[in-house]
Amino acid sequence: MERIPRNRRGMSLLEISISTSILSLLVFAAASSSRVALLATSDVNARDAEAGAERRTSVQLRELFLSASQAELEGVPAGQAVLAEPMQEDVDYQELRFRRVVGFVDGALTYEPPMGAAASRLFRAADPEGDGSLVLETANRSAVLLADVRSVNFRRAGAKLTVTITFGHHGEDATTSAIDVVLRVP
Question: For the chain, how many structural domains are there in total?
Answer without folding.
Answer: 1
